[in-house]
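Internal QA ticket QA-208
Title: Verify multi-chain structure generation after dependency bump
Assignee: T.L.

Test input:
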Amino acid sequence: MIKRKALTALTLICLLIGIVLTGCSSEGSSGDGSASGGKIHLKFMHDWPKGSSPAYFNLVNEIIKDFEDKHKNVKIDVEVLNPDQYRDKIKVLGASNELPDVGLTWSNGFAKPFATGGQFTPLNDIIDKDFKDQFVPGTVESYTFDGKSYALPMEMNITYIFYNKEIFKKYHIDVPKTFDELKQAGEVLKKNGVIPATVGSKDGWPASMWFMYLADRIGGPTILTDVINGKVKMTDPAIVKAAQEVQNLVDDGFFVKGNTALSNDEAKGYFLNEKAAMFLTATWELPNFTTSPDTSKAFKEKVGYFKFPLYEGGKGTDINSYVGGPGLGVFVAENSKHKDVAKDFATYLVKEWGKRSVEKAGILPATKVNTDGLKNVHPMYLDVLKDINEASNVTTWFDTQASPNVSELHHDMMTALFGKQVTPEEFAQKQADALAKEAKK
Amino acid sequence: MKTVMSKKSVIALYVLPSLILVLILIYIPIVLSGYYGLTDWNGVGKMKFIGLDNYITLIHDKLFWTSTWHSILLGLFSVLSLIGYLIVSLILASKLRGSNLLRKIYIIPMLLSSVAIAQLWVKIYDPNNGMINSILTSLGVEHTPLWLADPKIALYAIFLPIVWQYAGFYIIILYAALINVPEELIEAARIDGANAFQIAYKIKIPLISGVLKVLVILAVVGSLKYFDLIYVMTGGGPGHASEVMASYMYKEAFGKFNFGYGSAIGFGLLVISMAATWLIQKFLKTKSDD
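Actual output:
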């Protein structure tokens, strides 16, 4: 009797362990592409959900479908997440060595641990063979570590102040050329009950754009890159002054109320609903202002943009100096089971992306665009492409250049600066300390 | 004797599967995260053993103690709100008409996902178009509060939905305990001339004190490791004003790629939670012994 009980117990244990083990093994293989039924499955992850980035979503799907039509034996399994979740998930997958075969990565500080940790595979062969002189200068470099390039850049973005032309016209405001004029415009708008500018400073990075431009205009175009490279200290008077000017704007009520609790998307709503007159953001928003069917035609006609105004007496005297940089690039996982197919797909994706993105989706690719061949393109694109060609400098976003550690601190500090929880001096000092600590390592 | 012994081994065998599972899923990860806390690790590359450095930094980390304080505040709030739940349950258990329906209404927030609740309350708190401020404006309030954007009130503004979210859970448990109080005792008390308040205070509450103790521990421990609403609603901001231990751990590990330090924070959270549980048990025990 007892023996039989023991036997049942033993069988049960074996069964349970069996279940646990099979659970593990099936999880392990689902991460990589696996061949089933003769088809090669590639896992691809991107962060353009249908809801918030329909143009990107559709274009990527179209390219994937074309690729599958050309390669009948390949099936691309797509996983879509919103950017914040994507950022976290990629890190978790990286930590457990289960990256998708092909995926997207941000440049510089974000990509570095993956690249140097051997998670991304170097793509120099593809770049030399298939993309010679095709990328906008400065884009591939953002994914290059120790001479090896780990991603194919997809985007090139620069930052402008987008504004509502109708509101400006209604209150007789001219496009500001100097920072003082910008502040005056804010005063006029405020008097008339319009929010001068919207910003989602809960996220930190949208708030940082204001700081980065002011640093560029006050301290000169190289100052932020110099800070990252340790040539200039974060506590440099020009940086502190830039932070001070940001806080002055906050004090003046220049930004939407309660912005430290608004995410970038929530803040954007104020601009799209015409409650706020200005929105400092990058060109990745262009589709929303030009081609996207989700914004009304009437509103699209009202949107214009201007370059960030110059600061009187500042070192940055060229209005054609921008803050911007490559956004996402395509990586191929080092431990992909079908690396060659994955590389083919990445190449196809970036090539087709470059060909179709401007015309079909209104996205600026990192590959060079021949404007002569473009038909049916919103004039704003031609203006922006012209600006990119004439740019005297594009400073890659400070938080992108910085390590994840400093970048996160920078975001926290930006929110705190907008929320008036730190003084400009503390703002600079804390980041200077973090940078110094990192330089020692 | 022989049968007892062999029975024990059978018992052991039966316990073994769940023991293995608990070991694999709970105790081994705890030991591992304690170990990760001893390393400098970015989550992807190689680990570097650095001894107790992370834990020493942790003890001197003001932000960690601020977030701990916020977690403890949340715990206090949750325990205080138990009083409210108790009152509601007492009323529901007193054969009130429609109490069945009310009970179901209270449980609804429990059924919503945390993210949905967070989104709902973010909209309610919106400083410009939100429900609360719209009402305040229509009542003539000029300087409406910024709620989640104001570092001074953000934390408390999040406490409210958290308390709201778990109300149903606690009320159901208290209600179940209260209707199990023997009817004869209440009957006898009533014959002796006790009023409703006396019945509740002298009979019902002492009889469910065991359940109450468990709920206090659940509320405190649950609060100490609380994460979801805070992460979605403010992300610990503005400027760490609503940071709790779990959100701080998450930021360090996943935001800054500091898995070593993140693990150290997680281990600190575990120690603090255990200490809190031990303290509460001790405190409640001496009280009932008196």
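Spot checks passed. Chain A is about 50% helix and 15% strand.
Status: verified.
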